[in-house]
Amino acid sequence: DTTNALDALSQEGLSVEPVQHEKEAGGSGGRTWEMVGGGGGEKQRRRKKGRSRIVSLEEEDDETEGAEENESGGGCGSERQREHPFIVTVPGEVARGKKNGLDYLFHLYEQCHDFLIQVQNIAKERGEKCPTKVTNQVFRFAKKSGASYINKPKMRHYVHCYALHCLDEEASNALRRSFKERGENVGAWRQACYKPLVIIAARQGWDIDAIFNAHPRLSIWYVPTKIRQLCHAERSNATASSSVTGGATDHLLF
Amino acid sequence: DTTNALDALSQEGLSVEPVQHEKEAGGSGGRTWEMVGGGGGEKQRRRKKGRSRIVSLEEEDDETEGAEENESGGGCGSERQREHPFIVTVPGEVARGKKNGLDYLFHLYEQCHDFLIQVQNIAKERGEKCPTKVTNQVFRFAKKSGASYINKPKMRHYVHCYALHCLDEEASNALRRSFKERGENVGAWRQACYKPLVIIAARQGWDIDAIFNAHPRLSIWYVPTKIRQLCHAERSNATASSSVTGGATDHLLF
DNA sequence: AGAAGGACCAGTGGTCCGTA
DNA sequence: AGAAGGACCAGTGGTCCGTA
């Protein structure tokens, strides 16, 4: 499988941010990213969790710009960790700087699939109820397995983007190229993933649940509420239009 | 369909029981079934809910033994209503007295199926998530539709009995005849339904979920925890036995 | 401002146990 | 005692919003 190869696409290391509970501590109140490890003697910093550094399963690191602060155990140990934010990358592109690319995003969905299969195997062995979808139980298992970078809000947020990637990789790739070229941010790209999905649904009788269920990798994900609503609204719109105009003027509601 | 014909199998009317909140009110403290409508002047009776009399969809009543107390609107209106308890009946038999038979029990499962289909149709129309099982939502819908005699604990309690009825009606009928003949109560019959189900599962690779899902009427019901556990325990037992004895001494764990 | 994710909340599956 | 079902509870799907 492709697990290890794709893991190399993630920027190594979690983002490291100081936790400040006193608003006035930093003076400017803005981002204090660069203060970590060298900062002054602010009080009120607290360690919230033990540091866990588990993003990459391999140790290769050809992206050693600057001193990755969280590599050295130094500093006062008071940082809160998050994954690097996503940026729009084209297929095969590795994100530079403290960013993660979209190949890595999609790879997280594959990892969840693997965790689901493990949970299913355990359930079968024990004669317990066997989940067919990525449930809370699976997210809990992933976390317990060390994949602390996987969480439910993130995965749910981008499900429809992954759906487009699964259902029409060409269209998905084209969208990525276009949005990267125009310098759009991840949020704009994410929004733009809805429209092609709705068009796919239109072609297949508007049954987005059937479309998800028919795809082996997509079937384990709950259909996001928003894409379901868009399909429904667009179908109503299409039906109304076609009943008046004979179907010539259908226009997406976006 | 058979809805109306089968409804006639239910004993008409709900059980009517006085609600006593003061333990000492009745003197004997026992059942006060016959006191309704003619009772003395006990205080502390309270109406808990409006009376709803909706068990039968037809009005035919060829079982008019005694005066059905809850037919007349008389009395002080302080009764709490329940369905008549089930008794073991043979196929086609109508329960006598204030009892309901097993054909009626199984018919409730078919009614739930109908309610599920209605809920599904509404969900599809609205573009909402569409349940594939009899969920809380379906029970709520049934109640709202006037089927107050359908409730979750009851339906869940007898699911495995219905499963046997669906999967091997001959075996189910034979069991009913045997338990009626021996004068066993419903609880004993219910317990006895587990064993033939486990034997069916054994024949089909122990996958009780697959067995439920493969059957069109059964697939809408969650597999009861207990039958899942029995299948698992029995499979482990069978595997252990066969690995030692070559499979000649398998014996059910009941 | 754009974005990651802890944590909350309404409604679920499951069934106990107060009731008669 | 045998049995029906109101009502509770732990853990769910869903996503908001406090955080940086």
Automatic annotation (TrEMBL), chains A, B:
The keyword Transcription applies. GO terms for molecular function: DNA binding. One of its GO terms (cellular component) is nucleus. Residues 26-41 have a biased composition (Gly residues). Its main location: nucleus. Residues 12-83 are annotated as: Disordered. Residues 57-71 have a biased composition (Acidic residues). It is found in: Nucleus. Residues 73-239 form the Floricaula/leafy DNA-binding C-terminal domain. Keywords: Activator, Developmental protein, DNA-binding, Nucleus, Transcription, Transcription regulation. GO terms for biological process: regulation of DNA-templated transcription. Probable transcription factor. Belongs to the FLO/LFY family. This is Floricaula/leafy-like transcription factor. The chain holds residues 128 to 381 of 381 of the full protein.
